[in-house]
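Anyone else keep sequences and structure tokens together like this?

Example one:
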Amino acid sequence: MSNKSITVALDAMGGDKAPKIVLQGAEIARKRYPDMKFIIYGDLSKIRPHLDKRRQLAEISTLVHTDVKVSGEEKPSNALRGPLKQSSMRLAVEAVKNGDAHCVVSAGNTGALMALSKILYRMVPGIDRPAISSFFPTLRGESVMLDLGANIQCDSDNLVQFAVMGNVFARIALGANHPTIGLLNVGTEDQKGHEELQDAHLRLSDANIPGKYVGFIEGDHIAAGKVDVVVTDGFTGNIALKTAEGTANLTTEFLKRTFRSSIFAQIGYLLAARSMRKLKHRLDPRKYNGAIFLGMNGITVKSHGGTDGFGFANAIGVAHDMVRADVIEKIKTDLAAVESF
């Protein structure tokens, strides 16, 4: 994409602390990305008190009023019909479909956001199903993983397509010119895994895409950073992601309890305070907030519903980078190369 400004559609009513964190995030993103403009969808009576405090953000924002929102408990199918056709989420996604915005960011209901995006954008030719992808810290830096929950069951075609899309995402998000790719399995031996994994493994071994396919990887290889791109079905990927989040929270809580356990432990904390701050910064989940829905003719980024303004700004940053790098066209190009072998 050229250096023209990027317009981001914001679902201001999605998330646990909307619209406050949405406006906070937009303000932070405005400072990071001066080429950005916003169309903000939601209840103006709730949005304006936050926007009035941010004059420069208001100058680059267009407001569209609707007092209809998709709740976190709403069934995805309900978001497609009836009164929810006028929801802030629906209108934001429609803005991308109609060309009024380049991308949409929402912290709202994941299933509804996926359903709306899939119906309104349609799939990229050659991609059967969309995938949710995000990045997270490893011992080597960062890795990306997909699918994180959109598809409970996948065949080998889906897994190969996920590998292509994850490869593109890693090149953009991580700056990895030649990403390494691995299929998540119960073992690294060639004979391990079900038929779909075996078939995808053979096809990826000969695939003509940038980077290197290293074969099967196991669960402990994810945090070790053995590969840049972890490919799996949505059932396994979601469990792996939630397990990693839970383990991080457990470790943090254990550290807190340890340093509170005695006066000597508290002194030890004071001596290690600088290193602890570095660790906290490294593992801060807000830094990795923003999961992109890959495989559709439109860019949708899902923010964690419980994040704050800093985290939401990072989700906006993911959307910005995907638009600027023209992620959809890169996926089409790489997919054509794979299908030609």
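And example two:
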Amino acid sequence: MANIMPPKYVRQTLISLQSHGHQAYLVGGCVRDMLLGVRAQDWDLCTSALPEQVMEIFPGSRPTGLRHGTVTVKVNSRSLEVTTFRSDGGYTDHRHPDMVSFVGDLTTDLSRRDFTMNAIALPPAGLAIDPFGGAEDIENRLIRCVGDPERRFEEDALRMLRALRFSARLGFDIEGATLAAIKKCAPLAASLAAERVRDETEKILLTNSPQTAAELIGLGLLDRYVPRRPADAALFLRLSELPKKALERWCGFCAALDSCGCIDSVEALLLSLRLDSRTVRCCRDASQILRGAPPASDAEWKRCLRRCG
């Protein structure tokens, strides 16, 4: 593991929970990032302590997700989420568990998580607890579901988009059985809230591999919004040439979709994904400009800029 220490307030929280007789671990993305040698942006903890016990230990903490066992703990001026070990029930809506049960076993808690690289726990001192081989998958740069991938995606369809986003962000491959399950379960993505699909798509567009957004279409994850799949995805490779900013990448993505005949209307696509009005207007205007011949003179460029901004 890279020599990256969590911040003092995170260590204090872990030690406080342990000093009161509870198990406490760093878990999820922060452990993955530490193994990759990257400083984590968010620090998540899991514990055997029940939410009420966590709030007793940390006065001023807030029950931000009490039904799911999550308490936001405040240490000095900093805050972090602490979640009780749990087991999830069924997922009727393919997004949220119908019920959760608090458990005392760390491995049971880790078994409900999406990918092996996110199912590693790290105590304040000692070796990482890795029952599903996540560290090896990180070393092999592989995204693999915990347990049966079809079951993971039937539980939460957003995990399919997250797999593509992690692949784009980290440069990891998606393991064969996991990818096959995405192809099979792709129709479940139609049940996701448009805002969730928009956010995951934008996160992909803002990586060093924005062309991965074309894979969302090719796998059928955007069928609710993009009715036709591109015959040739080569145009999407040029997205990485654009500035790594949301507006520019959305404009490029929409222009590629429009050019490939994947959509009937840039405006309709973006409105269905709940994009803001400025992004809708700019992407629509950019696609309209690209359909015709480029301005041939300074005067034509000035007229174009006056018209479109």
